[in-house]
Hints:
Elements: E1 5-9, H1 15-24, E2 28-32, H2 36-43, H3 54-63, E3 67-69, E4 77-80, H4 96-108, E5 113-117, H5 125-136, E6 145-149, H6 159-165, E7 168-172, H7 175-185, E8 193-196, H8 198-228, H9 233-240, H10 263-270, H11 276-302, E9 311-314, H12 329-339, E10 346-348, E11 360-361, H13 364-369, E12 373-376, H14 381-385, E13 394-397, E14 408-409
Parallel strand pairs: 1-2, 1-4, 2-3, 4-5, 5-6, 7-8, 9-10, 9-12, 10-11, 12-13, 13-14
Antiparallel strand pairs: 6-7
Helix pairs in contact: 1-3, 4-5, 8-10, 8-11, 10-11, 11-12
Bound molecules: ligand SAJ.
Amino acid sequence: MLGVKVNVIGMGYIGLPTALMFAANCVEVIGTDYDEKLIAQLMLGKVTFEEEGLTELFEKAVSQGIKFSTSYHPADIYIVAVPTPYDKTSKKIDARYVLSALKSIMEICPKGAIIVIESTVSPGTINKFICPLIEKNGLVIGEDVQLVHAPERIIPGNMIYELENNSRTIGSDNNEIGMIVKELYKVFCKGEIVLTDIRTAEMTKVIENTFRDINIAFANELTKICGSDDMDVYEIIRIANMHPRVNILQPGPGVGGHCISVDPWFLVGDYPDLTNLILAARKINDSMPQHVLKRIRDIMKNNCIRDISRVGLYGLTYKEDVDDIRESPTLQLLEKMDEHLAFGIKVFDPMIKKVVVENQEIDFGKFLSEIDILVIMVSHSHIKDNMHDLKDKLILDTKNVCHFEGVYKL
Length: 410
Ligand code: SAJ
């Protein structure tokens, strides 16, 4: 879309690739973030996280003139991709970052600007929090500014492909404005773009992630049941999945990331009396790090190992082959240990080059030389490629990637 100026707010895991994709497809883009260090790094031409194809996309976007800034700029369309955490007590959305972005946009946006919220928000957030804020600032929605919700669906690890190929939802209460935003996303999105109203788009996004959370919880509950009675959960899932209408996901050490472990809480917070299944699933997934700890304790007992510093956790990120550690099962497990004043467990992750937790090793060889029990928390390609190095260890494999005899499973 030539002639349209877009200011993307929030240069994180979603905002950055989205901004780059627009710029690489000839849209005039400024990427804004209040983090000066992050913007300085982008201005130096360096990407800020690892993702397949991101560097190439970055180079293309730079050659097309993308700009980065710590300030907001007058533009035709604003795309807000800032974090939306939840309040740990009330479980309701903590919309402070979106609201603060909105305030800054309103200070400089020209009349008629379109504000697209990409951040995941709980159903009703735009009506309950964002519209009143705009009106309080003396602006008329539909005249001075237009509001649209365009949640993303991309999966870390395959973001660039999915940005181009996934279908997506655009929620707008004004069809004409919805069409303009749809045309904008069509510059790179080859998937179907569905136009709907704002509330439907908000709800759809949250229930997509809730659906996955519930399905992972089912696999995690199965692993507990099977483990308690000496049955092979992986074989059972494999066979059950041969049924044409059964598709059970894989159990694991917990659910991390900034989406699936967060979004279902929005529904629990807003509909506490109606979310029995959703809450149960959250509790099951949140219980998994504790379950891993119990398995570690059993293995230590069985093998007469008393020193926790002889145990090493492999993987700090929330899933394989990404460098994102937000809400990761390993962090959740370390927090649990902390609560019980148990310190000293070793940690290693090939994707995390800086020390971010206590007793973290940066060198894989050294890490292995210091432990007797290895707990595979994340199935990075790195561990699959280095399986032979683990031969002399006791292994607790929470991801079912190690097929040596005698390996302990979840
Ligand atoms: N996990 C399991 N077992 C599985 C699959 C995943 O334990 O069978 C765990 C992972 O290890 C990880 C967590 O679940 O800890 C979440 O990983 P994920 O790969 O399922 O999803 P995310 O959080 O990386 O991305 C999700 C995606 N949503 C859905 O698949 C419905 C993505 O499409 C969304 O764009 C993203 O959330 C988001 O931003 O909302």
